[in-house]
Amino acid sequence: MITGSIVAIVTPMAETGEVDYAALDRLVERQVLGGTSAIVSVGTSGESSTLSVTEHTEVIRRTIDAVAGRVPVIAGTGANSTSEAIELTRAALKAGADGALLVTPYYVKPPQEGLYRHFRAIAEAVDIPQYLYNVPARTGCDMLPSTVARLAEIPNIVGLKEALGDLDRVRELVALELADFALYSGDDSTARASMLAGFHGNISVTANVAPDAMARMCEAAMAGDAETASEIDTTLAGLHSALFAEPNPIPVKWALAEMGLMPGGIRLPLVELDAWHHEDVRAALRTAGLLDCP
């Protein structure tokens, strides 16, 4: 089981919108050296919705090449069409991914039985470890713990990224006591509390800018060291907030560009971070020790 801080890595782009693979290599290296336990490639933070299918697969492959076996790579392969999700998951397996992260179908708002059959169909079609991803704020669809429990019985469905950001939901999932099934927070603001309550790690946006601190915070929280986890998380709290001042990945891509780690390119319909938020993000970076004070 993968535990700890898992980064939902961005897909760096030139100002003109082309994927910047050299910058991707640098970001991957920084994550590995920073103690990140695994990398999610082409998830929400990786702009899966703005990449072509060819680019989607190529970014996954290039991420795997850059990692060179040092940490697992989990490919974002979810879609609102079951057949498309199967196609993307097969491509990820062929590229060498260690697992697939599958978001609940967005826009179509399936019922719980539809969710169950969707994920079961993908699991039966592609023999790769699969992680469910529940993020109702973006999909308009909430996968309930009872459905998670049913899906956990399928051998190659091995975990869940829960991004509801509700600690009652966290406690409900932990209470299921699902054997050999990983529970990850998908909400940086509540990740520490989630891990202290029994989650196994955090699939993080904040880790893009602060891999070392997130890795140490997750390690402390999972060890039950609430004091150390709180001390580290306090320095990151501003980032947890500022990096969602506008829809992800707008703020985190701006922050990484501000740190000089990649160009500032982003694709429509996403746009660059509004200037109104610049100083808030800079202040959060300074508090975390990631940007020199003026």
Automatic annotation (TrEMBL):
Cytoplasm found in the keyword field: yes
Q: Which residues form a coiled coil?
A: none
Alphabetical UniProt keywords: Amino-acid biosynthesis, Cytoplasm, Diaminopimelate biosynthesis, Lyase, Lysine biosynthesis, Schiff base
Catalytic activity annotated for this protein?
L-aspartate 4-semialdehyde + pyruvate = (2S,4S)-4-hydroxy-2,3,4,5-tetrahydrodipicolinate + H2O + H(+)
A GO molecular-function annotation: 4-hydroxy-tetrahydrodipicolinate synthase activity
What EC number(s) has UniProt assigned to this enzyme?
Answer: 4.3.3.7
Query: Pathway, according to UniProt?
Result: Amino-acid biosynthesis; L-lysine biosynthesis via DAP pathway; (S)-tetrahydrodipicolinate from L-aspartate: step 3/4
Query: What is the recorded function of this protein according to its Swiss-Prot or TrEMBL entry?
Result: Catalyzes the condensation of (S)-aspartate-beta-semialdehyde [(S)-ASA] and pyruvate to 4-hydroxy-tetrahydrodipicolinate (HTPA).
Q: Does the keyword Transferase apply?
A: no
What does the subunit section of this Swiss-Prot or TrEMBL entry state? Answer: Homotetramer; dimer of dimers.
Q: Where is this site: Part of a proton relay during catalysis?
A: T44, Y107
> What protein am I looking at?
4-hydroxy-tetrahydrodipicolinate synthase
Cell location:
Cytoplasm
Q: Where is the active site?
A: Y133, K161
Q: Which family does it belong to?
A: Belongs to the DapA family.
Task: Please tell me where pyruvate binds in this chain.
Answer: S45, I203
